[in-house]
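# step 3/5: fold
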Amino acid sequence: MDEPQKRTVRFTPQQTQFLEALQQSLGGKASFNDAVSHLVNLGMQMNEDPFFAYHQAKWQTDDVFKFHIIPSIFINTLLKAISIPEINETKVNSKDALFQMLRPHIDKLAKFFNVSSAYLKGEKPFPYVMPYAQPFHHGLLEQMERDSITEFQPIYSLLKYTCPESVGIDTALYVKIEYQMDLYKSINVVKPIGLYAASDIEVIQYEEMAQTLRWRCFNFAIDLNTLNRFSMGTFLPEKPGRGLPCLSQ
């Protein structure tokens, strides 16, 4: 009964891309079939455990804090700036207690980190929604400046990631906002603009607008696996705290 049963399943290109990205995230020598099996196990777990979404939300919220390397001494500083009630110090240092206090304010937290509310609620596995080839948004960059927390002295950058291996859609555009918490501590949050071909007029328009606003502009080369990961809506590295992809290059 425990022997794996042979099955033939046909996947759409989008499903195959998702499973290949999942395979990469498993690491090691994980096969494509391992990714399929992992996804089925997750589905079974969700069906059997009514609290799965709660636990998933707690883990994913904790991952966002870890990724941004936010020590407990800065959590209340951050929460105050985004109009979330301060949390008792004893609860700040407890993952369970902290999440319980943050649950009613998930939308505000998601807005600050520019991640999907559904991700912090455990409803979706990826933190970002990456649009495909959206029309140029004339006021998008100015809107991001207006929505930023000014007391943290934000610095803005346009990030362009281009994959030489890809044909057609090969470029991912992001905005990075660097918040200065104090003299030594900063937080980088990103917002995806979309996926384009490098030659698309929208890419040029965003670069020109960023230069007009005196934003910093960075160009990076990435491999196909990273582009696939971006397209699925994740920007968090495999190990929390490693920083944004390619920024050390």
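# step 4/5: annotate
The longest strand covers residues 186-196.
# step 5/5: archive (pending)
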